[in-house]
Amino acid sequence: MLNPVMKRRDFLATLPALPPALTASASAAPPASEIGGDFKLWYRKPAQKWVDGLPIGNGRLGAMVLGGVPEERIFLNEDTLWTGFPGPGGNDPNGPKYLADVRRLILQDKNYAAGETAAKKLQGPFTVSYEALGELHLKFDAAGPVTDYRLELDLDSALCNTSYRIENTIFRREALASYRDQVIALRLTAQALPGAAEPGAKLNFTVGLTSLLKSTAAAEGDTRLRMTAKAPARMDPDYLNSKNPVVYDDAAGHGMRCEALVDVKAEDGTVHADGAVLRVENATAVTLLVAAATGFRGFDKLPDLSADAIHARCVQTLDAAAKLSWPEIHKRHVHDYLPMFRRVSLRLGAGTDASGRSTDERVAEYASEPDPALAALYFHFGRYLLLSSSRPGTQPANLQGLWGDLLRPPWSSNYTTNINVEMNYWLAETCNLADCHEPLFQLTEELSRNGATTARVLYNLPGWVAHHNTDLWRLSNPVGAKSGDPRWANWPMCAPWLCEHLWEHYAFSGDLEFLRRRAWPLMKGAAEFLLGWLVEDGAGHLTTCPSISPENGFYLPDGTVVTVDAGCTMDLALIRELFGNCISATKLLGIEADFAQRLEAALKRLPPFRIGTQGQLLEYSQEFREPEPGHRHMSHLYTVYPSPLFTWNKTPEWMEAARKSLEIRLVNGGGYTGWSAAWVVNLRARLRDGDKAGLAVARLLKQSTRLNLLDTHPMGQGGFVFQIDGNFGGPAGIAEMLLQSHDGEITLLPALPSAWSEGSFSGLRARGGLTVSVDWVNGRATAAQLSAKRTADFTLRPPRAHKIAALRQGAESLAVHRNANGTVTVRLEAGTVTRVEFA
Description:
By secondary structure, this protein is of the alpha+beta class. Helices cover 30% and strands 24% of the residues. Among the domains are: 8-83 and 129-345, Distorted Sandwich (Beta-galactosidase, Chain A, domain 5); 612-618 and 627-745, no CATH class; 757-838, Immunoglobulin-like, CATH 2.60.40.
């Protein structure tokens, strides 16, 4: 079970000592030759911009490597480096009166425009911003033209490698982000070509540190370089046209202090201070280690650690790592990372050799030359990014994961909770990275504490609530400063969506202790708020008001565009799902039957979902005309994914209505952002339309993916910014195309595209504690294997046009119950491995 009490500040102390041999989990990881696949992103030239670099990370520390010659720029990040500090919160005590005004205007007067204006009074301050720590500069002495250049990111070992030749010398740089030793580590070597008549060149370069924050850098002795900085106390979001958007404050705790400390160790050469840089001369190899820390002490405490205290943390980390040789650092890093990455394998296509084409060439050619193996590489890249940006004890992945280079990043690089941060974790359970889910659970627990204050003060309600944005300090009020557009500011349904992740972790693991100790208190608190939030609609139903379908709007008869309604479909879906999961939890845990009865009574009074004149699932309480029928958000389709409210087995008529809604969105230009395109992949998979799901993957790769496979989001005037959510949502969708388990059965290859006629996967997880592997050729499954972690009854649905002939454990054939719909039900014991044979 995930540790329910582990705090970030002491998680390093909990790491066990690494044994000299491989750990048990590492020895259990299959070799790369057996898992198959394409695991390397590689390029023939350096990246010119930060957004085109290659990311490395250990969950807490991140770096973007550009691979430059003669200057290497490595951008550094630390996951607790945010602006601001915890404050009193933006909860207006007049909120209950404002809420009553909004409800009267919307529900009784039907004055939507006035209700929208009134909703702004509920708003409080904006979130703070995630900050870039700085840049590590390596400036090499000029030495001639560069040939044989290669920049590479090896996902299988989480190593970024740069190599090139100058005359008779091969220069190599390796970079990694060690979770075990909590440093960014680089190894630089210079080696003469084999058989060269002349000795090779040496490493001669300077090492410097800079930052966009107010900072100073200075050498500490001859082998260490220290940069100290402080983040602003206040920073307005990048989309606000503020006269004074960045404010520094020298007061203790008003702005985050931070530090980066570099250690440089040369072999066969020297290192010495040269002003504010270090200079390396005549070395054949150099090991460079970067430690970093901030003054963060917890979401509810001022970050008032002194610069000396932060420095002591960096020194302690760096001293420990500097005692290790490069082979030891490398080995400890790989032994930590590799077993987790190799839990899952995926091979798509007939094994076409793509080794001769660089990744940017493959991405550019994808439109004219479909490359299933590139889709598999993209899948693995998403898993790599989650492992690199979200580990136990760290902050969750934000809008840019862990990586950033700007003082005022897009949308503050915060946690946007009306889709984006949730999408970041869609792959965690299915793709066997449940431990990476832990930081989101920690955020939910912390957010619920501030959210309880917001519920009580702003709404005079029990339980806890949060809205569409949060940050390091777990802000829970509606943002907007009483002037924000309610389409994004006033959405109050974050809590049930985050609770869906808690329930999913239980559903996949069957961990009743996790459900009891961590999930249930948070789920109950969110449900208590919603019970109080529901209001009589005047027609015998309980509804929500104000209700916003995230970031979308509708026309009034006079042509006015508004956004605030009552009982939007997404609200009703989230409530139905949370209440249903809470009722199930009370039965599983044998607790609070009275509370479950209250939930059941409320469920019966919710408004029904609605179908429009085109047969589509309606997004709002009625069929309003839409200003953006191709809007990027598809919030009413939450009912299909990630929720299992609508399924082909139980609600086929609603699945058809949802399919129609999706088609209307797409024909009008929907799915045009990276994360929106990724959502389409998941929806197509749940609709079990394999070829359209495959086309959605292709669209995601062609339209919303940079040449380094990072996800993009349109940002005005034809420009794009990096936003990581699509990098997680896309791989989740690919997994959903291959395995589904949300409808009370395990479905094999439910949405396999004809373009992926051959392939295999292993290690994907199904709900109930099952790990699944499948091989297929010419679109037909040839083998499948089930590994049970729990003893339970499982219902298996074979791929379309298949029949399950037998289930075997070794030579023994298991007794199964064959159901009328083509599925089979079988009891599997914990620890067993079962082979599925198809007719």
